[in-house]
Amino acid sequence: MTRSEFHTQLLALDLSQRPDEEPHRRRMIELLDSAPECFHRTAFPAHFTGSALVVSADGSRALLHHHRKLDRWLQFGGHCDGDEDVLRVAQKEALEESGVEGLIVASARPFDLDIHAIPAFRAEPAHFHYDVRYVLIAPEDAVSTVSDESHELRWFTPAGMNELPLDPGLRRLGEKWQRLVERRRASAHAG
Known about the structure:
CATH architecture: Alpha-Beta Complex
Number of domains: 1
Number of strands: 8
Helix content: 25-40%
Shape: globular
Largest sheet: 8 strands, mixed
Structural class: alpha+beta
CATH superfamily: Nucleoside Triphosphate Pyrophosphohydrolase
CATH topology: Nucleoside Triphosphate Pyrophosphohydrolase
CATH class: Alpha Beta
Number of helices: 5
Strand content: 25-35%
């Protein structure tokens, strides 16, 4: 996906059921229009990142990692490093950080848009990640491996995620996933 296609995709997203993400979309489009280097981690005060919520094949659990540097539970993701295809970045980061092979893209459209602050670290100033989030489905026999970026990996049910001290954006991501799981169960019982 090119920068132009990404811009078009952001504009076309139906956020009528996701009004809290509208300010994020607006700021993301402004960044795309004003910062030529916005896909590079050296672009300050903000740059794009791609991330993914990895869910089990049956959709009942999500795999999170306890991030070593930030010391909190997160979905998988990272810097674009110049790649304008944010979905490809999310897929690459999920594979690298989880070790799960054969992840399937649930939808090529972003599942969630989030802007969050990143604290200063070493020579890097405090800045913002303009995070574009997708859902990836793990195969039935998924085997995960802890990377150097994590303390541990663990599968969580939606209820289990609700018990964690998550940042507001990840909490919203988990709640959206939980609503999808509940709708899927309801239609399975109705049909």
